[in-house]
Design goal:
The strands form two sheets. A seven-stranded parallel beta sheet has the order 1-4-5-6-7-8-9. It is globular, with a radius of gyration of 17 Å. The two termini are 14 Å apart. It is of the alpha/beta class. The chain has one domain. It contains seven helices and nine strands; from the N terminus they run E-E-H-E-H-H-E-H-E-H-E-H-E-E-H-E. Strand 8, helix 7 and strand 9 form a beta-alpha-beta unit.
Length: 258
């Protein structure tokens, strides 16, 4: 059972709503647009910006991953949870700092420690790799099974993020090359990365991509033995043209399990 329209995950979960822009990939952030609607519905006040509010989601909403984990374990299966599509787990904000221990407890209770038992694989994607290490739980050690760390890298100027995350222990490290707004293959070192997601920008203000960028990063992933997932070309709506030269690339790391 899935609750996400994102093609590379089964579920999305947002511990809180709100973020701030840190790089060019944030310019036309889809989450900011959605946040304006939620802001009106929940009377939260502004949610975007360093000094803006962060709105912690409801108790009932926080119970959902427990249900997903229970179902997955009943089937001895694993499912993927993209955490914080409307925020950043490693946001340096007082509300985020106060809520992160609760999030770590939830992740620890539901994560897939053993593929024969099942559970959830939590995908924590950030544009703030320099903050990650100081915000991990005290018992992180060599990384938690079932908890993946990822960085968004939208072009060559952000390739340094991969170098920072490579030094942090993790069961799985991954890159989101989305929205792709510049060529990346020649700028990034994929050593230590098990997965890369690539895709063009969607929405009315989308920036153009290049099929060559995606061919090149696909080939770089193959050379590095990094699983490659191609989501889409740049278009008004998400999911448009999910092919490279007529081929669909929907690969996940082996750790994702059955």
């Amino acid at each position: 059972m899935q609750n996400s329209n994102i093609s590379w995950t089964d579920h999305t979960f947002n511990p809180w709503l709100g973020c701030s822009k840190v790089s060019p990939g944030c310019t036309y952030c889809y989450a900011e647009v959605q946040a304006r609607k939620l802001q009106a519905a929940h009377h939260t006040g502004p949610l975007w910006g360093e000094r803006a509010n962060r709105h912690v989601t409801s108790v009932d909403y926080w119970r959902k991953p427990l249900v997903w984990a229970k179902r997955a374990r009943a089937n001895r299966a694993s499912q993927l949870v993209f955490c914080a599509s409307m925020s950043d787990v490693f946001d340096d904000h007082p509300t985020a700092a106060a809520t992160r221990p609760r999030l770590w407890n939830l992740i620890d209770a539901t994560r897939c420690r053993d593929p024969h038992v099942g559970g959830l694989h939590w995908l924590l994607l950030s544009k703030r790799p320099q903050s990650i290490e100081s915000m991990l739980p005290p018992n992180w050690d060599d990384g938690w099974a079932g908890c993946w760390l990822g960085v968004t890298i939208e072009g060559p100027d952000q390739a340094w993020r991969a170098d920072v995350l490579r030094e942090i222990p993790a069961a799985i490290r991954f890159v989101s090359y989305e929205p792709a707004i510049g060529p990346l293959a020649s700028a990034i070192d994929l050593r230590g990365y098990q997965w890369l997601i690539a895709g063009g920008e969607s929405g009315p203000h989308r920036r153009a991509d290049s099929l060559k960028w995606f061919r090149d990063i696909r080939d770089a992933c193959a050379a590095a033995e990094t699983a490659f997932f191609f989501k889409q070309r740049a278009a008004l709506h998400p999911g448009h043209d999910p092919f490279i030269d007529g081929v669909q690339y929907h690969d996940w790391p082996a750790a994702a399990g059955p």
